[in-house]
Design goal:
Layout lengths: L6 E3 L2 E12 L5 E8 L2 H16 L11 H13 L7 H15 L14 H13 L4 H20 L18 H10 L5 H11 L5 H10 L3 H5 L6 E2 L4 E4 L2 E8 L5 E8 L8 E4 L2 H8 L19 H14 L9 H12 L4 H8 L4 H4 L7 H9 L2 H4 L1
Antiparallel strand pairs: 1-2, 2-3, 4-5, 5-8, 6-7
Helix pairs in contact: 2-3, 8-12
């Protein structure tokens, strides 16, 4: 019985199948033909090739542009991978879309990308008003991508390793300080009085007493609360993120995930006043803060409600995150050392905690005058 074929090349008959091996940055499918003496043989060759992609084996991407291969990396390798958080994928996709997809280096062939091209690209971004922090974040993202390219033998060296980013690292701290919003002592008293016996009261007081990030706060389960040792264990966060069904469609989901950094896994002491409040709560099962269906409260709703509370209290608008800022600032003002505050906040570096160092002239004078005892 003759084998069934569907293609003829140079007088020889083959069975040809076409498979999608990736996608270009514009969403166009990258197709490749596979030939065999039979359909079974062609399918086998295609499967072997696709498996080589999944296993990270070398593929001839010499003619691919930076934008095309980065798009393929995102949607053919990272998309829905268990190795990356949905929130991280959302951040990567945003960096690609906003900085790379239509940039001056997007059309450069991957194998031609050198440090000099990236240096000029970063310099132009700086001239266009982008900050050191923004460009540094982009460079970190590109390092991850180019390291993946090296691991898969597409390139030999990471072109990000020898670039210099204009600006100053201190810009990160200075810009951070500009964005730090804290609640004044009189404002805290007004809010506490306004929230008495309301559903929002514990949310506010617990955040003020622990400095948790909003996602960490809303993910708290009673099993993380130790009333005997007076501590809270932080080991997860909840967030509303875009989950990508494919490159063109996405939807919002509320997901639990590990905290922001390794340092974010921490155990925090709880003040006695809050312990007493928690101890009085009868139902100590499941989430501390949940809706009527037992689901976590949505961050957007909390932010909206917080804005309304401040408005009704005649307090200038500050983000909900300002409660966390207030916690750190108060600890530092009370003389807690910066290393301890950094640990309590779950910061990855003390330099991040430094944005809360707002020493007043009065506190500086008090500190300096302590030298009197050794100068007299």
């Amino acid at each position: 019985m003759a084998k069934k074929t569907n293609s003829k090349i140079n007088g020889n008959e083959y069975y040809r199948i076409r498979k999608v091996i990736g996608h270009k940055s514009n969403g166009e499918k990258i197709l490749k033909n596979f030939y065999g003496s039979s359909k079974k043989e062609a399918e086998q060759k295609a499967n072997e090739y696709l498996n080589s992609i999944q296993n990270g084996l070398l593929i001839n991407f010499d003619n691919f542009t930076l934008s095309e291969l980065m798009h393929s990396w995102l949607f053919d390798f990272l998309h829905n991978s268990s190795k990356i958080k949905p929130s991280t994928f959302q951040r990567y996709e945003g960096l690609y879309r906003n900085y790379i997809k239509n940039s001056e280096i997007a059309g450069n062939k991957l194998i031609n990308i050198k440090s000099i091209q990236l240096q000029k690209f970063y310099n132009n971004l700086y001239e266009d008003g982008y900050s050191y922090s923004q460009i540094n974040t982009l460079n970190t993202f590109l390092k991850v991508f180019f390291n993946w390219c090296i691991d898969n033998d597409y390139i030999l060296k990471n072109p990000c390793s020898k670039v210099n980013i204009k600006g100053n690292k201190n810009d990160i701290i200075n810009n951070g300080r500009k964005n730090v919003e804290i609640l004044l002592e009189k404002e805290i008293k007004i809010v506490k009085e306004y929230l008495k016996n309301s559903d929002f009261e514990l949310l506010f007081l617990l955040d003020l007493a622990t400095g948790l990030r909003q996602g960490e706060l809303l993910a708290l389960d009673w099993k993380n609360v130790d009333l005997i040792n007076k501590t809270i264990k932080v080991d997860r966060s909840v967030k509303e993120v875009y989950v990508y069904d494919d490159e063109n469609t996405k939807h919002i989901e509320t997901i639990f995930q590990t905290p922001k950094t390794t340092n974010s896994f921490r155990t925090i002491p709880i003040p006695n006043v809050i312990i007493n409040t928690l101890d009085k709560i009868k139902n100590k099962e499941g989430l501390l803060f949940k809706d009527n269906n037992g689901n976590p409260l949505k961050g957007k709703n909390i932010s909206t409600q917080w804005a309304k509370i401040l408005k009704e209290c005649n307090i200038p608008h500050k983000k909900f995150h300002s409660i966390r800022h207030t916690y750190a600032s108060i600890l530092l003002q009370k003389g807690v050392d910066i290393e301890t505050v950094a640990e309590l906040m779950g910061h990855s570096a003390i330099s991040i905690t430094q944005i809360y160092l707002h020493s007043s002239s009065k506190s500086k004078n008090i500190s300096v005058n302590r030298l009197n005892s050794i100068l007299n």
